[in-house]
């Protein structure tokens, strides 16, 4: 039995979905042949070899740990001058940490929601003793010293976007400088999907949910902010020093009616006020979704002629229907919400770059909520700020189809080389959408099977 390793890039055949799924991996060809004696016994009158029967399977090679012991040559001249050979700068001085192992820890926690204590256990199973405290120090230091530079540059880019989505979620931080346990907040901001801008997701840790948090982050933003009906956003819009306008979320407007509709079931819900509202909003969505692929100017025109009449009818219906339901009912709450938010829910009609809802922000903050269920709380403010930075890189990498682990490894390899630079222009080549990123940082794009 012979084995031959074929580099992935040399294989060109694509046969079916299985071959397509496996095409980007290096392939070890294992030959199963008969000996000459066996062939002579089977075919005494001679034979010819037909095309091979081929099947494939996938093997997993466990993580391999390798110690790199660096020996730096030291030279001394007769005049006493001492010169050392050049060597790579350490990412963290005096530490065994490397870009590969720190990236693995970051990827485990912030992409796959694996808490550090479980990573500590997994390392131990491989006879590697790294405590969760050591990993936490690696992660926080790497985020603050290196990754924060990319975060800051990404924030500059995000604030140039004509549309930003915003949302927030609570998180417990044990040592936030206040006595006792208090809710802290992780805010998320994402560039609009309908804008011709780079796709960005930024998290921002704040101790509160008050207006000061988004005001500080969005101080240089002068576009449209898509958000839910949280009053803080509206308060900010009305301040003299605020330059952005708020656009409402139709998904939030639809939610109470959808809950009633689905809890009753289609048959029982038929004819109810909640069903009437739900069907009207669904019709608004259906009509607007048909316009998504149009050029912005054409989408704006069609929204005026096709969608605006539906919106006008809906709000007229809301004002006429509020007295048809019990004041304290979920349906009444939904109608009141729509009436109160009408100004903001209409904004999308005048700007073709604004989507109907804020689902993009909610989707972007969901990975943090999943992780929060596993690690429960954050110990320090430093840890919370580091988490905001690292989740930002993870979610932006996803939005730009990057291989997250390889991207972190690239950042932690390249940024330390430039810490003595007098400017930060080198960061441009490291941003998630940069065409200068190496191929291994990009996810392999597979074509759909026909």
TrEMBL record:
Any one Pfam family match given in the protein's UniProt record, by short name: DDE_Tnp_IS66_C
Ranges for domain Transposase IS66 C-terminal: 392-433
Domain of life: Bacteria
Record-annotated Transposase IS66 central domain positions: 95-385
Protein name listed in UniProt: IS66 family transposase
Organism: Zhenpiania hominis
Lineage, opening ranks: Bacteria, Bacillati, Bacillota, Clostridia, Peptostreptococcales
């Amino acid at each position: 039995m012979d084995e031959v390793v074929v580099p992935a890039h040399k294989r060109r055949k694509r046969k079916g979905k299985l071959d397509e799924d496996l095409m980007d991996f290096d392939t070890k060809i294992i030959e199963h042949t008969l000996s000459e004696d066996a062939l002579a016994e089977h075919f005494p009158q001679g034979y010819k070899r037909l095309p091979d029967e081929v099947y494939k399977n996938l093997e997993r090679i466990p993580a391999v740990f390798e110690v790199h012991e660096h020996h730096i040559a030291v030279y001394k001249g007769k005049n006493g001058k001492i010169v050392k050979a050049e060597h790579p700068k350490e990412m963290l001085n005096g530490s065994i940490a490397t870009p590969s192992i720190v990236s693995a820890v970051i990827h485990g926690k912030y992409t796959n929601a694996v808490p550090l204590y479980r990573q500590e256990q997994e390392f131990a199973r491989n006879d590697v003793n790294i405590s969760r405290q050591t990993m936490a120090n690696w992660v926080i230091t790497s985020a603050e010293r290196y990754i924060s530079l990319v975060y800051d540059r990404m924030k500059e880019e995000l604030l140039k976007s004509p549309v930003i989505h915003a949302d927030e979620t609570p998180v417990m931080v044990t040592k936030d400088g206040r006595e006792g346990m208090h809710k802290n907040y992780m805010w998320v901001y994402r560039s609009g999907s309908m804008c011709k801008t780079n796709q960005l997701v930024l998290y921002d840790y704040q101790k509160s949910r008050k207006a000061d948090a988004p005001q500080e982050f969005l101080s240089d933003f002068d576009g449209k902010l898509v958000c839910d009906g949280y009053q803080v956003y509206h308060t900010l819009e009305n301040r003299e020093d605020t330059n952005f306008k708020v656009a409402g979320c139709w998904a939030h407007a639809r939610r109470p009616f959808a809950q009633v509709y689905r809890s009753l079931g289609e048959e029982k819900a038929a004819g109810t006020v909640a069903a009437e509202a739900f069907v009207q909003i669904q019709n608004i969505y259906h009509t607007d979704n048909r316009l998504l692929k149009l050029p912005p100017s054409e989408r704006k025109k069609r929204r005026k002629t096709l969608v605006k009449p539906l919106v006008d009818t809906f709000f007229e219906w809301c004002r006429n229907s509020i007295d048809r339901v019990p004041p304290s009912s979920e349906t009444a709450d939904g109608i009141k919400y729509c009436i109160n938010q009408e100004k903001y829910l209409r904004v999308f009609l005048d700007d073709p770059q604004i989507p109907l809802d804020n689902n993009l922000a909610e989707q972007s903050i969901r990975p943090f909520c999943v992780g929060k269920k596993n690690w429960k709380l954050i110990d320090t403010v430093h840890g919370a700020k580091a988490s905001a930075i690292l989740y930002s890189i993870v979610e932006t990498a996803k939005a730009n189809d990057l291989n997250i682990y390889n991207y972190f490894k690239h950042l932690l390899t390249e940024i330390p080389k430039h810490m003595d630079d007098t400017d930060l222009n080198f960061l441009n080549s490291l941003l998630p959408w940069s065409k200068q990123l190496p191929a291994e940082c990009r996810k392999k794009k597979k074509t759909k099977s026909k």
